Amino acid sequence: MTDDEYLAHDALGLAARVRAGEVTAEELLDIALRRIDMMNPRINAVVRTMEEDARRDAARGSEGPFTGVPFLAKDLATMYEGHPTSSGSRLLVDHVATWDSELAIRVRKSGVSVLGKTNTPEWGLVPVTESELWGPCLNPWNLALSPGGSSGGSGAAIAAGIVPMAGGGDGGGSIRIPASCCGLFGLKPARGRTPTGPRRGQLWRGATVEHVLTRSVRDSAAMLDATHGPDVGAPYEIAPPVRPFAHEVDTDPGRLRIAWTTEPTVGTAVHADCIAAVHDAVGLLGDLGHEVVEGHPPIDGDAFAKAFLTIVAGELSADLEDVGREIGRNPRRSELEPTTWALGLLAHAMSATDFARSIRQLELVGRDVGVFFADYDVMLTPTLSTPPPFIGTIGPSDAEKTQLRILGMFGSGRLIKAARLIDEAAKTALDFIPWTPIYNITGHPAMSVPLHWNAAGLPIGVHFVGRLSDEATLFRLAGQLERARPWFDRLPLMARGM
Asked: By residue range, what is the domain housing residue 331?
């Protein structure tokens, strides 16, 4: 198989070639590994390879839908026994997992050959992929730009044509953000759809859901079919789909009532390219026969941002304590980035009441969104407030990092809180992602669809949110949009060796 043939197929297409005997799993793996050698020095998307495991997976064969397809896992949250999961942190860079996550087990059963781990920001805390440990991941569409985050390494690897599909996790938009920046399809499933077991309950109070980024809609649907289902001991269960998600992709969605807005929930400004992408999508949806109405749920963005930051700080602090117990000592300041260390300290200056009040505030957002969706099937917004940003422009500046390092030396959360540097860093991040975190908190499924490219040739995703537990409608709509406005063959020039 040539590289051009490899790029011409999605994951299900490659698996079909394997089953037909036209190519072997080992040959596909060799192509992917060679493309890592060719592409990764330029984009820094893959931080570890797992060739021995991948060769074993390829030789074993599978009856799964993705038999023989090369796959990259995000280096955060999901554990693969015998391999470190660094979470983008010096603290965990060499800490080898001694168990498999249930999601890892199901991903492997789908038939893929897991050949490595992808770049992620430390602890997945920011919407770009620029950790001090691994260095910045670069966007194949323009190497001066970010592929987004926190699943930025996965997005960049797919856009560069290394693999057709890779793992992602989404706690505030981290599948949808790189999907928008890299011209890919990215669906965040409904809360509780994919497993977190066997040793974890909710991730970020249920805000974080793991899945994949893909070039085609059907790959995303088929992988969700392979990974969803009962998760023994999970905090809650979600209603199973009526039929396989893969069947929905080719099903006409019927006439949907779709609300749309470009008004940011958090922040104040939206780039003209992102507004244009929504207006273009509104026109396309109208042409496809949908009822499209301007409107959005009433959400207090400032109150949401404050409550969300409180939850993230508390969850991070608990994560750091958990890691300390696992490694037998407290994390050291030198092992964490200044923002991560400061955010952990900030949690110590918050009370249990602060945490509980924040949960209640966010639950009220869920009520408001639920009332809104009583009148609509789907909601449409920009995925992001800007096109893919330049490296180094999202998050604390170098001067702010220096201040955080100095404040962190005192070990006082109250000093961190008084300085308000974390608040400013969070504001910068949330200005970039005014819509995506809302639906992590409410638990609604949501997706970024690559329908638009700007005058500079950069992808601009549009964001669709479905009703609770209703990925089926999103997959039907996404399949319709993919047929009406195909994007699969739109790849950056570097993916084709140019």
From this structure: 301-363+390-430
